């Protein structure tokens, strides 16, 4: 795709800077069609699935039609139990000890699944028909939705429940954090992540003190945020496109009010916290005009597996500086 370049007008007011999407001299090519905004999951793991048709609103634990293609038959859930994982805490398992998951692109109010087709093959919906609450499970939180094929899918506090095809043994939790959108279900229906992440208390972007890297930026799921040293700050330009985004999903736009500890002004007047209109049509958040990403290889909060990859990927500080690398 050919791209064109332009430098947007710079203004002195920091308040205006926050509202601009072209303050960093971005490259822009209007997309041919609407694009999904946000992280892109690794192929086959379906972290970015299109939504189905809306069903009738219902209360948590109630039923609702989900307009999705037929999903493959899944094994009965049986008596649900609670298992404690050393890394993420308490998780819900089925009668065989397999971990149950939830999907960030689903909704709990009203309960609705947005995983169908090939997604439902990788993440089989958990049948609701025979599911019962075992010790540590509040039966009042159990409900169901009716999928397009007529099957009923289990919900926990409104969240549709799934298994992960790559979990083959009791206690496996290989689906945790996949695509930055799939998480094991805690007994209360929240994400099994531990700490503030599990309670949904983290802002869209904030910081944490890593024992090795120091203060670094994290996203709303507690995942480390990175920058790519081949990207350009001025004019703003990305070198991570196509297959690169499978491993390095972009950080979707985050409202400035939904941040904590992030430098919103930037190192130079009028260059700060703005949204990057990528040439592929995806909108990406930046810090000090640096496009930011997460890493598909980070499976849980606190992971920093992307640090130093290829000598070009580094965790980012709240002022946009890379950790462990010098800027040219």
Automatic annotation (TrEMBL):
Annotated PROSITE patterns: PROKAR_LIPOPROTEIN
Keyword terms of this UniProt record: Lipoprotein, Signal
Region (Disordered): 26-45, 50-74, 303-328
Biased composition (Gly residues): 50-61
InterPro entries: Lipoprotein_repeat, SCO0930-like
Signal peptide boundaries: 1-25
Ranges annotated as biased composition (Low complexity): 62-74
Annotated Pfam families: Lipoprotein_15
Compositionally biased residues, Polar residues: 26-38
Domain of life: Bacteria
NCBIfam families xref list: SCO0930_lipo
Name of the molecule in the record: SCO0930 family lipoprotein
Organism name: Streptomyces bullii
Upper classification of the organism: Bacteria, Bacillati, Actinomycetota, Actinomycetes, Kitasatosporales
